Amino acid sequence: MSYERTLGDLRASGYASRSVKDEMRSNLIAKLRRGERLFPGILGYDETVVPQIVNAVLARHNFILLGLRGQAKSRIIRQLTELLDEEMPIVAGSEVNDDPFYPLSAYGREQVELLGDETTIGWVNRNDRFVEKLATPDVTIADIIGDVDPIKAAKGGHDLADELTIHFGLLPRANRGIFAMNELPDLAGKIQVGLFNIMQEGDVQIKGYPVRLPLDVMLVFSANPEDYTARGKIITPLKDRIGAEIQTHYPANIQLSAAITKQEAWTTRDGFEDFTVDVPEFISEIIEQIAFEARDDQRVDKRSGVSQRFSISALESAISNAERRALITGEKDIVPRISDVYAALPAMTGKMEFEYEGEQVGAARVAKDLIKGACGVIFEGFFLGIDFAPAVAWFDEGNKLLLSDNASAEECVGLLDSIPDLIESTLVALDFNKQDHAKLVSACEFVLEGLYAQNKIARNEDGGFEAVTKAKRDRRGMIYEDFTDIEGYN
Questions:
Q1: What is the rounded end-to-end Cα distance, in angstroms, of the chain?
Q2: Which of 142, 181, 214, 336 could form a disulfide with 340 if both were Cys (CB 3.0 to 4.6 A apart)?
Q3: 398 and 261 in one domain?
Q4: Are residues 316 and 392 both part of a single domain?
Q5: Is 485 within a domain?
Q6: 190, 215, 247 — which closes off a domain?
Q7: What is the distance, to the nearest Å, from the Cα of residue 275 to the centroid of all Cα atoms in its chain?
């Protein structure tokens, strides 16, 4: 592509100005006709969110994304730049991306009037046409719109009311581009009025001086539904100017959630070529199910949500604990176990906001309950119809098993082999070699955790399993039993 350097050359090239919304609409239509994937890397929105965004762009609407945390709102907004032209001509030196044919600022108009077709043209990349701001209560009109700059006035000998004395804020600098405001309800009301006024009327008052700024900008916002609806912190005139309200959501099922986590989580552990990382399918599903359990748990605040980062961080932390074990034992296979999921509690507890009941019992207790519930759900999916009665009977006879998360796979296999039919019944449902001890230990520990979730055996914090008394087994609401008073577990 050739880049013209003067206004005359640009005019001769046949370049035609168009608004940013027309530009995005045209490029979107071209992508749709070519069958290109929109918003690559965004999973689970193809049938829900993406069509609504397409409709908003086709309609040339400003829009807002409403969703709980961790629903890819910011990532979607940042990918909107792909709908802009790769390069855009401006009056060189313009702070507000002046259109060479229709300059907006006093500087741009002066350049064109003075130099005519010899006006120097600059080119702006699509990524530099995106301006993003996080709304906070301390944001001012000067930040967003602009302010009078007395230094400019003094150096140029201008009156303070002269447009040439203005220091432009973020919104004017996004002219002919995309302006994104995250967490819009947190923006002070008077700043929202400034946004509305410049969108509606194209003018604003800075320090009492009226300034015409008919900006050409695509406005995109994000917000939490609770802030947007319940607290009503977006002023009505601004709401009315937002053309589309698009709801984002969490993944609809475990498989999709696991695919997102696999895409985003750091699991390769580069730099250790002698190690291999292998995450069993049931471990991945358990971690995703924990997030689903948390979103449904009455002790977790649903208004804050449980983001996809919960699963991503939990998986990375579980792999790290397995990596630590491999470094200690000298093993080459990094295979996470259920004990590694428990070791990932610090990566989970900070990503949940709790209701009163959750605060009372504590974040760690809630997280352990969620792990137990998730293991029970996934266990039934893998081992439906398989009888582990001999293993349960072994515990009922008074036997106990303590698996340390620092123990090697060889050590654990020796202990697990003493439980009747445990290994054999486990391998019926899971297709891998019995000699793959790292996977075998992970699978057997999963079975024991599943039996614990069904209240057929008991578990303590150190990973110890033993029989459950009849009284405890009848308590279907039992979540966790502490066996620190049992000999060998203190």
A1: 74
A2: 336
A3: yes
A4: yes
A5: no
A6: 247
A7: 29
In order, the DSSP letters of 131-160 are EEEE--TT--HHHHTEEE-HHHHHHHT--T
DSSP-assigned letter for residue 97 = -
Answer whether 124's CB lies under 8 Å from 90's CB: yes
Q: What angle do CA 354, 355, 360 make, to 5 degrees?
A: 85
Q: Which two tokens stand for residue 397?
A: 């006879």
Number of domains in the chain: 2
Calculate the average pLDDT of the chain. Answer: 87
State the Cα–Cα distance between residues 286 and 469, nearest whole angstrom: 27
Q: Over the stretch 256-290, which tens digit does the pLDDT of each residue have?
A: 999 999 999 998 877 666 788 999 999 999 999 99
- Domain membership of residue 479 (yes or no) is no
174 and 52 share a domain? Answer: yes
Q: Are 440 and 434 contacting, i.e. CB atoms less than 8 angstroms apart? A: yes
Residue 24, pLDDT > 90, answer: yes
Cα–Cα distance for residue pair 318/315, rounded to 1 Å: 5
Q: Is the pLDDT of residue 406 over 70?
A: yes
Q: Angle 308-329/254-264 helices, nearest 10 degrees?
A: 60
User: What are the residues facing 64 on neighbouring strands?
Assistant: 221, 245
242 and 338 inside one domain: no
Residue type, 423: I
Look at residue 484 and tell me if it is in a domain: no
Distance, CA of 43 to chain centre: 11
**Closest Cα partner for 20 from 75, 95, 88?**
88
One domain for residues 373 and 303: yes
**Other Cβ atoms within 10 Å of 132 Cβ, number:** 16
Is the pLDDT assigned to residue 488 strictly greater than 60?
A: no
Burial, 55: exposed, middle or buried (Cβ in 10 Å; 0-12, 13-18, 19+)? Answer: middle
Give the DSSP letter of residue 36.
P
Domain harbouring 200, CATH code? 3.40.50.300
Chain center to CA of 291 = 14
In a domain, 486, yes or no: no
Domain extent, residue 451, equals: 254-473
To which residue do tokens 């990973």 refer? 463
In this prediction, residue 271 carries a pLDDT of 64
Give SS3 for 91.
strand
Secondary structure (3-state) at 347 = helix
